[in-house]
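Subject: Protein record for review, amino acid sequence with backbone structure tokens
Category: Structural biology, sequence-to-fold work with a learned token vocabulary.
Format: Residues in single-letter code; tokens as whole numbers, each standing for a residue.
Body of memo: The sequence and its backbone structure tokens, given next.
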Amino acid sequence: MVALTLALALAATLPSPPDPLPCRPLLFEPFVIPANNLVNFDVLDARAELSNPPATSEEQPRTVFGIKRHVGLGAGYDNGILHGSIGLYLTIAEVGRWNFGIPSPAVGFGRAEQYDAKQKRAVAKTQSTILISLVSIHYRGGYIHSLGMNWYVNLEQVFDSRANITESQFGFSFSRK
């Protein structure tokens, strides 16, 4: 606080500044940039980038991450329940011919024995269900030229939302990538 008071007192005792410097006109003319409408600096930058070829690696990458959409069908038999589905599979990684999937939806059916109170016995019933593919692995079998698609054999673990159980399925899927 004392330092601030001292600084203000010192500033008040200083003499006023001298008159400002006089201004005078400049003796040379300002330069003018000639108009050249044919120069586009974006094109020049692009041409400079194209003259340097991109660096290529000598090794092929072992893993390619990218989303692929597969449409497929699968079926299985677990815990006395026959089940099948048609669904969309999403894969995020590819190593060689193997693709690895993440959770994705499917519509399916389940045929299981349930107790019927009217008949007083177990009866096989078929019910529709929503299946969630928890994890899947797809092996690329080949390319179908007439469809323009790759075909895959897949093995997956699914969650049956109606029966509240997990099940395994074997199936086929197709993808454009």
Observations:
- The two ends are 74 Å apart (CA to CA).
- The beta strands are 64-78, 81-95, 98-102, 104-116, 121-144, 149-160, 165-175.
